[in-house]
Design goal:
By secondary structure, the chain is α/β, with parallel strands linked by helices. It has two domains: 4-124 and 302-332, Quinone Oxidoreductase, Chain A, domain 1 (Alpha-Beta Complex); 128-278, NAD(P)-binding Rossmann-like Domain (Rossmann fold), CATH 3.40.50.720. The protein is 24% helix and 26% strand. The protein is built from nine helices and 15 strands. It has helices at residues 51-54, 128-140, 157-168, 181-189, 204-211, 226-234, 264-267, 284-297, 313-321, and strands spanning 4-10, 23-29, 37-46, 75-82, 91-94, 101-105, 110-111, 148-151, 173-178, 195-198, 216-221, 235-243, 271-274, 304-308, 328-332. The strands form three sheets. Strands 3, 4, 5, 6, 7, 14 and 15 form a seven-stranded mixed beta sheet that branches. It is globular.
Length: 336
């Protein structure tokens, strides 16, 4: 049994973009599991955009990270000690990431089927990011056959799945926005997007108008800011918007201006709806069943950017916020 393990603590509340000095790597004793508990050796941990908001000491839909305590988040690992409720050797997902070892109640872990897909997929295309894409385009801003769909953050973890989901639901044209020529090319050549625009090249409105000259029906928003404003202008009457994220604003040090064309939503009879994927766990089994089949037939491609070692988790998180990754950003843990 391990005697100690490393964990990442938040030691400073960031102002603007987080810095490596806001994190500390701490070695702490491993807690033996008590009755009804399991000890999990984490093999993969997830770093996600929403975690930036938890670094601020403000009220939100999830509590902020505590200073001087281990951070948490999605993880997949192997049970290495148990009172029998979950057999040793079982691969499970849970919410105590950012550490090498986690002691949890057995009710807090969910066994995953590694015969269906590799364990790390349950943090990506088969996890919350995939579910967020599915819920957004099936329930929040439903895609109808023949729709033109625009997706921002298209090369990210949610965006890559959203492009596939939109097509599966009958979209005629799927347009993605990403940063940089290489990402834009890959969206079209590798990930099945019909068109893609490079927001770093400027003239976002003109680029979207060229890709969708008659407008769009659905906008899946991972970015907020200018992307949302441009999408509102491009939406056709009765258009739908799924507000999944607003990563362009997560490091803002003050209130960001909202779209100045929101009045258009009235005349166009638009629907703009925010949502959280974990409010829709009732669709998880349905989604995983679909997504596993799509992975098998090759219509869904799992793209991951993998960083090795718990020591590098903070830098992986910072790179994810800067858009360095394509697909899901994961940290792979190695153990002696």
């Amino acid at each position: 049994m391990p005697v100690s393990g490393k964990a990442v603590h938040l030691v400073g509340r960031p102002v603007g973009e987080p810095k490596l000095s806001d994190f500390a790597l701490i070695e702490a004793p491993v807690v033996d599991p008590g009755p009804g508990q399991v000890l999990v050796r984490n093999d993969w941990i997830s770093v996600d955009p929403y975690m930036r908001g938890r670094m601020d000491d403000v009220k939100s839909y999830v509590p902020p990270f505590e200073l001087g305590q281990p951070m948490d988040g999605g993880a997949v690992g192997t049970v290495v000690a148990s009172d029998g409720a979950v057999p040793v050797g079982t691969v499970v997902s849970h919410r105590l990431g950012w550490r090498e070892y986690a002691t949890l109640d057995a009710s807090e872990v969910q066994p995953v089927d590694t015969k269906r897909a590799a364990a790390n997929e349950y943090l990506g295309v088969l996890g919350m990011t995939g579910l967020a894409a599915y819920v957004g385009l099936k329930v929040i801003a439903p895609v109808k056959p023949g729709d033109v769909v625009f997706i921002s953050g298209a090369a990210g973890a949610v965006g890559l799945v959203a492009g596939v989901v939109a097509k599966k639901l009958g979209a005629e044209t799927v347009i993605g926005s990403a940063g940089g020529v290489q990402k834009v090319q890959r969206l079209i050549e590798h990930f099945g997007y019909d068109a893609a625009i490079d927001y770093r090249a400027g003239d976002l409105e003109g680029q979207l108008a060229a890709a969708a000259p008659t407008g769009i029906d659905v906008y899946f928003d991972n970015v907020g800011g200018e992307h949302l404003q441009v999408a509102i202008s491009a939406l056709r009457p009765y258009g739908r918007v799924a507000l999944c994220g607003a990563i362009s604003q997560y490091n803002a040090t003050g209130p960001e201006p909202g779209p100045n064309n929101l009045v258009m939503a009235i005349g166009k009879r638009l629907t703009l709806r925010g949502y959280l994927a974990f409010d829709h766990f009732d669709l998880s089994d349905e989604y995983i069943s679909h997504a596993a089949a799509w992975l098998k037939d090759g219509s869904l491609i799992s793209e991951q950017t993998v960083v090795d070692g718990i020591d590098n988790a903070p830098s992986a998180f910072l790179d994810m916020l800067r858009g360095v990754n394509t697909g899901k950003m994961l940290v792979r843990l190695s153990h002696p």
